[in-house]
Prior knowledge:
- The chain is mostly beta strands.
- Helices cover about 5% and strands about 35% of the residues.
- The chain starts with a strand and ends in a 7-residue tail after the last strand.
Amino acid sequence: MSSGQLVAVGGHASGENGISAGVCSIGTTTFSGSANVVAAGDGYGIGTYLDDESGMTPANFQLGTAASDTVTLTAMGGTGAANGKATTTVPDKAALCDGGTRTAAGTAVRFRLGDPIITVTHDGTNYTGYGDFAEGWNAAVGNENTANTAVKIFADWTATTDKTYGTSFGTGVGFYDGTNQAGSICVPTGKYITLDLNGFTMDRNLNDPCSDYGGWVIANLGTLVIQDSGTGGTITGGYTGKYVTGSKNGGGIYNAGTLTLSGGTITKNADGEKGGGVYNAENASFTMTGGKISANIAATGEGGATCGGGVYNAENATFTMTGGEISGNYSCDTDNEDGGGVYNAGNFTVGGTAKITGNVAKAVYDDSDNTASGGVTDNVYLPSGKTITCSATQPLTNGASIGVTTADTPVSGTTVNITDSNNADYSGYFHSDKSYRVQNSGSGSRQVVQLAVMPGAGIFDAKFYQPQLWDCQRSPAFPVANHSFRLSGLKAPYDQNLKKVNFAAPASDYVTFEYVSTVAALDDTVENRIVNSLKRYTGATEQQIKDAAVVKETLHSAGGTTELSSIGLVWALGSDGFLYTAMDGAFKYSGGVGTYVTFAAHKTGDSIIYTPDKTEPYTKNEITDDENKLAPKDGTPTAPAAVTYQELIRVVDNNSTPAPVSSATVTITVDDNTYSGTTNANGYG
Length: 685
């Protein structure tokens, strides 16, 4: 037949007669040039009856003598939906090729009509569509003459039941892991595959661990790039379990080659030991530029610790993450905190918008339904001596957030590096899973991000009892840096309304100080009053005053809480104590009165001399972060075991000129306890 058009028109409601007469019964048809075959039917449509499933022999079209000769098949009509074959035109998508090479002259090629469920493109050309996943995948990885093969799926690919491996995606070269036919999708050594999930799901469909070997969804031994041109593409259902005879590592993907994830989600996979989402084997390379790894589980292993709920990066392996998200993964070793998100035993580089948050270690695994719960926050786990490299070519930027747990624990005076040397400050993109302080150290190209012991909240972290609070007269009224400062006439504290603070139970009642805001955040009237007053008496700048911390003072007792002052400032903070000046109530007119808070022993009437290090009141950061602070920075103090009071009482007679009475018995009651004594020759007792 010369180049032209062959039209088969069905006369039966199902289109069967038309197919038989027009196409299937004509046997092998040879075209001397390119041709167009148009088939029209009704009912189930022509696609069904040109499929092997119809029980009819597919039509064979032999191409012409020129390599450029092609056969274009166009399905027209067909309103049914049996097997999804009743479709209309589009040659590059609707024409399915079962075998052979489409552009080879003189080659018999079997064609089917209908949408393909997997397509394979070699080197950007030679597009081929398949109606069977396994057939298409084997064709993709079995091609010997390609360096880059693109595979795209057009439907969900779910593994079917297999008596050996629980479930299997297929057999053949595309399902061989190098050791066993394990039922996983495989990229063999030396092959380069770009896989487009196209919004669909690859599901290993394992409800129980694979009984003999890896229950992975994908085993990559070559080069694999995973992308998702659609929305919601997922890799799921892998389950290597904990009692298998083969590898327990890797749930979703076992990578022993070069892997790139730019799109799609690796989710709800489980492994027996390491890498619930991805196991990046020794000397392998994994690059993540997008996509998501979430809700995967590193379950309790038999005879070994489990770690890396999201990703396990093995020794000498390389993991680079410049985008995407790793979140909501679990590591279920209840004895160790080993990377709910990422366990890094190799080389780990982060950059761009990498986000690793919300992952959990020490979770409890329930193998009855393959779920995990509980645990503690643990995002990236760094074994002793391991650090993270910050990318110089794709620096961390807005959107990046990385939680870190380290095997090495920072202690007072000793920090733990969590990054290598950098040429910029990247500390703002990291946070500690264990409430350590994240800080930048060094300068130039030698800056590192570190974990350090978080200073206590200073006075905000402490409880102060009756013997530790004294009202006093300040002289001068406000401190001046490097000038002596006297606190005199120590006496029992008063509240903002000049009422004596009632410590009903001195052994248990206590006062706390709480950060409220900066001065700049106060009502304009109050802010201006404080700024104008302090500028006049201290020499502090307006900005220094506005940045100062506003602190509230509260009494806590069995009967509830009493606000002693809602607006106050902290001055002269040192290792022995600090001065608190209330700036509300009656105190705003009282000038030189303040409250001195200390753990040092004092008595009524004592005086203290200070040499303050600064003129302006303290900011919040200075209160909480300064190393030379009151003892609470090392922990909240407890109530004193014993409270000592020293009061001098003088007894005189009632004559017009009072004279001291010696040897008089004096009895006083404190907290329901009665104490007696005798006056001396001067009447004191």
